[in-house]
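Let's sit down with a protein and look at its sequence and fold side by side. Go ahead whenever you are ready, and we will take it from there.
>
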Amino acid sequence: MLTLFFVEDLPKAVGEQYEFKNEDAQHAIRVLRTNVGDIFNLSDGRGAWSRVVVRTSEKKVLHVEVVESGFEEALSTSFTVIQAIPKGDRVKEAIELSTEGGADRIVMWKAARSIGKSDDKIEKLQVTAREASKQSRRFRIPAVVGVATTEDIIDEIARVDLALVFHESATAKLSQVINPAAKKIAIIIGPEGGLTDEEVDSFAAAGAKVVVMGRPVLRSAHAGLAALSALNTALSVW
């Protein structure tokens, strides 16, 4: 699969000449050794993409020509991952994994037992989502928003067709509550210390389904990817 880079001023017309000269271009030149004749994809991160071929190469600039362009429509099923903020570098890992798993939107949530802080990191986490989108060849970069309160999450539940709270003490399985007609889905992932009874009760009262992910108890940062994988399969997205 072709390498993907993001640019703000995406060239779209076949035959159009373009100077690729941002930080990604320097990475392509210095690290990937991209040279004349190589082909890769550019995207605006909102679905539009162009396939380009390198015509000339300089120290910090690649001069490319558009050979094909298109637009990737959003899937009819959208996923919002509501992630209780993990501690340390695991917050970055959570963003990377949810992005690679197909999340359309990631909400950072300050749960009662959250140890980590992301109040001043949302912009950096958006960059993490951008980099993970390149890695997974996504033409649409998920939005990273927050930091949300528990009351905000209750509002999120009201805006989706199906909200799922994954909790190790739940008795219901995902397969028992899945709604094949659901198009807007929220996945609520608790912190390392677990959800409080009050949080679970509040979310359930707002209409969320409380389900168990399986016998293994996953790290908070990894649970979003596992949930996305299960839902994409159950809803025949994959």
User: Anything to note?
Assistant: The domain at 4-71 is CATH 2.40.240.20 (Ribosomal Protein L25; Chain P). The first strand starts at residue 4 and ends at 6. The CA atoms of residues 12 and 69 lie 6 Å apart.
